[in-house]
Amino acid sequence: MATKERTTVVSNPQARGLYAISVAAELLGTGQQNLRLYERKGLLAPGRTEGGTRRYSEQDLVTLRRIAELLSLGLNLSGIRLVLVLEKENETLRTQLGDQAPDPGETPRQIRKKTDAVAHQ
Q1: What does pTM read for this prediction?
Q2: Which of 89, 88, 90, 64 is nearest to 77 (CA)?
Q3: What is the largest CA-CA distance in the chain?
Q4: Which CATH number, 3.40.1550.10, 1.10.3720.10, 3.90.1640.30, 1.10.1660.10, labels domain 13-77?
Q5: CA distance 31 to 81
Q6: 102-119: per-residue pLDDT in tens?
Q7: How is the chain classified by DSSP, letter by letter?
Q8: Using CA atoms, how far apart are residues 113 and 118, in angstroms rounded to an integer?
Q9: What region, left, alpha or beta, does residue 8 occupy, with left being phi > 0 and alpha being psi -120 to 50 degrees?
Q10: pLDDT per position as a tens digit, 6-19
Q11: CA 75 → CA 27, 29, 92, distances in Å?
């Protein structure tokens, strides 16, 4: 019986799932159940093997460390989800703006107008 091999091309090496849940939990000093909970709450979505096993990438570990940091500041999981979404949107806007710092003479209104224009492209 021939098996079909699946090849996945990943453009970002940090996005490639490398770690099983037990290894990721150990690296982060947390429990596997916490990682499953974070996934259920929509805080991250680790890759999966064909068999359905979670595989955590370096980027997932960065996100999990950020979650731990926000938990230590007293945020609940709903608040953390919101922070992660806003940070991602901020990163996207900065990339679209070319990481240009605002001119020192620009007013907040001018900065918002420029940001809104980029967001609606």
Answers
A1: 0.69
A2: 64
A3: 70
A4: 1.10.1660.10
A5: 19
A6: 677 778 787 777 767 766
A7: ----------SSGGGS--B-HHHHHHHHTS-HHHHHHHHHTTS---EE-TT--EEB-HHHHHHHHHHHHHHHTT--HHHHHHHHHHHHHHHHHHHHTTTPPPPTT--HHHHHHHHHHHHT-
A8: 9
A9: beta
A10: 444 445 556 778 99
A11: 22, 19, 23
Residue listed under structure tokens 């596997």: 32
Tokens describing residue 45: 């979505």
In one-letter notation, the amino acid at residue 18 is: L
Radius of gyration of the chain (CA): 19
Q: Which amino acid is at 116?
A: D
